[in-house]
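Record type: monomer structure entry
Structure origin: computed from sequence
Chain ID: A
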Amino acid sequence: MEKNKLRLGLIGKDVSKSDSPKIHAFILKELGVECEYEAMSVPPCDFDSAMRRLLGDFDGFNVTIPYKRDVMEYLDEIKGDALRFGAVNTVVCARGAGYNTDGAGFLQMLRFAGVEYKDKKVLVLGAGGSGRSTAVALKHGGAQVELYQRNQEKLFETCQELSLTPCQDPEKGGYDILVNCTGVGMHEKEGFSPVTQKAFLGASVAVDLIYEPKESEFLRLARVAGLKTVNGAAMLFYQAYFADCLYLGRKPDEGQAEALYEKYVRKG
């Protein structure tokens, strides 16, 4: 039986500007469930105690930068896409189970934005939890994916683990789509881009998982270069919807997700 009120949370290094509390409250209210949602900005030294509190006192929680892999050692089982991506963004506490809704949310965002990715050459910037999820989801969706990470040792290790192609020079151009999963462009790195305008040569679309600011420096450079730009606001909503379905034990419906997002945007 579903609870009529859920206690949920979000853990990350800095979630002070996160829209997640507002989004989850909206979605769950539309689905007939109330929620109490706590955003927790936690430094690495406090991660262990925060995890014990979340697992002991909450119904579920979401995970963001930089803890999507760290959380895995605290869980009893890793399910579905989380197992394939090697990263967790959603935890259902009663089962001690970790899931990942980032890939599903990302691909739905592209479809909603009218971005074709099958058979396209895509460069994914960043090999952290979001980069891993995005790159693998795109590959399974039929894209030709290359992954870039400044730390070359980590890059090759990740590519070997996930059967992805490493990119050693993101400035070379020649991609159809570029996706920023690095976090460069928000918080203390706002106003910076992980690549220069040279990287957009030959591309038609740039996607940034950052949603605040609405136009990151990465997207500004892409727009000036004439590319279609997409920020991460819709992905944040869709991955939240898929996570809420996990909390409620409901089967997700992509049509319902789109309808809810359109209503959320209209309400502002």
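Annotation 1: The two ends are 32 Å apart (CA to CA).
Annotation 2: The longest helix spans residues 233-248.
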